[in-house]
Amino acid sequence: MCYVTAERAECVQLCVLSHLIAILVVVMHRIKILSGHLRPPGSSEHRRDLWRSECGCAGSSSPDDVVVVHGRRTAVGKAKRGAFKDTTPDELLSAVMTAVLTDVGLSPDKLGDVCVGNVLQPGAGALMARVAHFLSGFPETVPVYTVNRQCSSGLQALFNIAGAIRSRSIDLGLACGVESMSLRSIGEPGDLSSRLTDNDKARDCIIPMGITSENVAEKFGISREQQDAFALSSQQKAARAQDTGAFQREIVPVSTRFVDADGSERQVTVDRDDGVRAGTTLAGLGKLRPAFKPDGSTTAGNSSQVSDGAAAVLIGRRSAVEVLGLPVLGVLRASAVVGVPPDLMGIGPAVAIPAALEQAGLTVADIDVFEINEAFASQALYCVEKLGIPLEKVNPNGGAIALGHPLGCTGARQVVTLLNELRRRGRRAYGVVSMCIGTGMGAAAVFEYPGP
C-alpha cells in the first residue's frame, strides 16, 4: 500500500509541475504580445529586444565572448602592375601583424596561436607565415599555421582562432590573411583522379570561376546592365570612401621596393588602394568585352580585381582581454560555412548568411552593414536580391570590384573594414561578412559592434 501511495503522490506532483509550466508558457507568450504593442510591429529593435531577453546573447556581455580587439590591413594593390607587384607575401603579412600588436601595446608572447589564411601557398604553406612571424619580432614559442578555404581563407583563419578560444586552448590569437597574386598565380589543379570526369559534381569543381559567374547570371536572369550598374556603384562608393579618408584608420602604410619598367628600383610607401577607378562610367563599362564567353555578360569591369594585400585581426576571450586592459572593437556572434552546387558557387552567401543569422537569432532587417565579397557582380547581385537586402546596406565603402580581391586576405580585410565602418556610425550595431568560395561553398560571420 505504501508503494502505491508514493507512486500516486509522485504522479500528483508531476501533474502540478506540468500545469505550472503550461501557465508559465502562457504568461511568457502574453508578455511577448504586450511588448509588441510598445514598438511598431516590424521594428528591428523590437525583434532584437525579444531575442536578447530569450537568448541573452546579442547585446549582452559574457566573460566567454569571443571579441575582436583590433584589426589592420595593407592597402590593396593591383596584381602584376600595382604598388605591391614586387613585394613578397611575408613582408605584407609582417606589416599588419606588427601594426596590430603595436597599436594596442601587446607583447607577441601573449598570443596563444597565429593562423594565416593563404590560397596560393608557397613553401607548403607554413614557411611564408613562419618567416613573417620572425620578421615581426615574434618569439619562437608562439606557434603559427596557415589555412586554405580559398576565398574565405582570411575569415576561416578567424573562425579557427575563435574555435581555439572557445575550447579554452588559448586566450588570445591573431587571425590573418595574405595573398600576392603578382608573384604567384592560379595554375594547374594538381594531381586529380582520372575518375573526376565520371562524377558530375567533381567535374564541376574545375569549372573556371568566370563561367560559374555566367551560370549564375543565366540561371537567375541577372542582366549585363544590372551587373555594370552594380560595378559602377562599387567604384563610386570606394572612391568616396578613399577621398573622405574612411580607410585611413584601417590601412597600414607599407614601405617597399618597386621596380619600374626600365628595371630601375625605388622605395615607395603604399597607403592607398590602387584599384579604385573614380572615373568609371556606365558607358565605359558597357564597352568592355565579355571575359569568359563570347556571348556572356561577365567582364573585367564587373568582376573582382586580381590583387595583392594582407590583413590581421586580434581576437580573444573577453575575460582575458579585460584583464589585459585591451579594447573591444566587436563581438563575434555567429559563423557558418555551407556547401552549394560547384557550378553555381557564387550563390554561397545566399545560403551562408541565413545560416549565420539563424544561429545569432537575428534577421536581415537587424543587420546594419553587409560586407559581401564582390567576386562577380552577377553573384553578389543574386545574393542581395535573394535575401532582400537593401542595396544601401551592402558594401558602403565599395567591394572587391573596386578594392580588389587578394584571395587569402579578403575575409580578414572585410572584418577590418566592417568593424571600422560600424565604429564610425557611433552606436551599437550589427554587421555581416560573407563570401562565395570556389568549388561550391559560402561562408558568413555576424559581428556586433558594442558601441562607443
Automatic annotation (TrEMBL):
CDD domains: thiolase. Pathway: Lipid metabolism; peroxisomal fatty acid beta-oxidation. The active site is at C151 (acyl-thioester intermediate), H405 (proton acceptor), C436 (proton acceptor). GO terms for cellular component: peroxisome. Keywords: Acyltransferase, Fatty acid metabolism, Lipid metabolism, Membrane, Peroxisome, Transferase, Transit peptide, Transmembrane, Transmembrane helix. It catalyses: tetradecanoyl-CoA + acetyl-CoA = 3-oxohexadecanoyl-CoA + CoA; an acyl-CoA + acetyl-CoA = a 3-oxoacyl-CoA + CoA; 3-oxohexadecanedioyl-CoA + CoA = tetradecanedioyl-CoA + acetyl-CoA; hexanoyl-CoA + acetyl-CoA = 3-oxooctanoyl-CoA + CoA. GO terms for molecular function: acetyl-CoA C-acetyltransferase activity; acetyl-CoA C-myristoyltransferase activity. Residues 66-318 form the Thiolase N-terminal domain. The chain crosses the membrane at residues 12-31. It is found in: Peroxisome. One of its GO terms (biological process) is fatty acid beta-oxidation. Residues 328-448 form the Thiolase C-terminal domain. Pfam families: Thiolase_C, Thiolase_N. The keyword Transmembrane applies. Its main location: other. PANTHER family: 3-KETOACYL-COA THIOLASE, PEROXISOMAL. Belongs to the thiolase-like superfamily. Thiolase family. This is Acetyl-CoA acyltransferase 1. It comes from Sander lucioperca (Pike-perch). The gene is acaa1.
